[in-house]
Specification:
Amidase_domain; 7 helices; Amidase/PGRP_sf; binds zinc ion; N-acetylmuramoyl-L-alanine amidase; alpha/beta; 9 strands; five-stranded mixed sheet; PGRP
């Protein structure tokens, strides 16, 4: 970021196009910002950074809205660098990077995922209409799990978690986001929280993060039980749709190793990532996203 950038606390450092690998040092004030706010996201007072805040482009067309709740929350990793830049500026840059990638390289209408969580723990709206539809108990159809976009909601977690664990701030926000979503949609975390590899042939969300999904389900369940004991259960929109049986493989069954280049949500030059004539999403689809 250039010296003399505007001092707006929420928007400082977001005007550039810093790649999410952190090759460009960010403004010191913006870097400090997230450390001064703990926790960044709680289910009791959810704060989502809006598309306007991260300067999203307009989608090619508005997201399709289904008048029903998703039945699964899909955990992804972005497979971008494990940046040490925890700033909001970096987080917003990541959101722009993903949107540009999905729109320009994948040919999609907009960001594929509904929510993005930075390594600093900032939670951002991804696909257009996601936030409003979550609040309404509906689903904005994303592009994040091939053949399963019409019943799932996707969360992109910044970084690559094949060999390392997500940082505490990201983990804390992910857990709280899942609490928030389970409340909003009346979902059982033990059933609802899955990894991308449960649906598609991909290494996403990384071996380490995937191995922690049972802990995530337990933590979310504990949090929901604790809050249910302390307060009446919030109203949830009644849904008449019968439960869609997930095509999730048994969790005890070991996953086959991903094919080379097959697990990169951002992997270069993998033509198999493109899929034509999908019935639930027009245009190009990524087998591994
Ligand atoms: Zn994924």
């Amino acid at each position: 970021m250039a010296d003399g950038a505007p001092a707006s606390p929420d928007l400082d450092g977001v005007t550039g196009t810093v790649p999410p690998d952190g090759t460009v040092p960010s403004d010191a004030a913006a870097s400090r910002l997230l450390d001064e706010r703990a926790p960044l996201f709680t289910a009791d007072a959810p704060h989502i950074y809006t598309r306007a805040q991260w300067s999203a482009r307009s989608p090619k067309r508005p997201a399709k809205i289904l008048d029903r709740a998703p039945d699964h929350i899909v955990v992804h990793h972005t497979d971008t660098g494990n940046s040490t830049d925890l700033s909001l500026g970096h987080a917003f840059s990541l959101s722009r990077y993903i949107q540009n990638f999905h729109m320009d390289k994948r040919g999609w209408d907009d960001s594929g995922q509904h929510l993005t969580i930075s390594r600093g723990g900032a939670v951002m709206e991804g696909r257009n209409r996601s936030l409003a539809s979550i609040r309404a108990g509906d689903l904005a159809v994303g592009a994040q799990v091939l053949h399963n976009n019409e019943h799932t909601l996707g969360i992109e977690n910044e970084g690559n978690y094949m060999n390392t664990a997500p940082p505490g701030r990201l983990w804390a926000s992910l857990m709280e986001v899942c609490v928030w979503l389970c409340r909003a949609y009346d979902l059982d975390p033990g059933e609802a929280i899955v990894g991308h590899r449960d649906y598609n042939e991909t290494s996403c969300p990384g071996d380490v993060l995937y191995s922690r999904l049972p802990a995530l389900r337990r933590a979310v369940a504990d949090r929901l039980e604790g809050s249910a004991a302390a307060a009446p259960k919030p109203k949830s929109k009644p849904k008449s749709k019968p439960k869609v049986k997930p095509k999730v493989k048994p969790k005890s069954k070991p996953k086959p190793p991903p094919k080379p280049n097959g697990g990169d949500d951002y992997g270069p030059g993998n033509p198999s990532q493109y899929y034509h004539d999908d019935d639930d999403w027009p245009g190009l689809l990524n087998l591994n996203w």
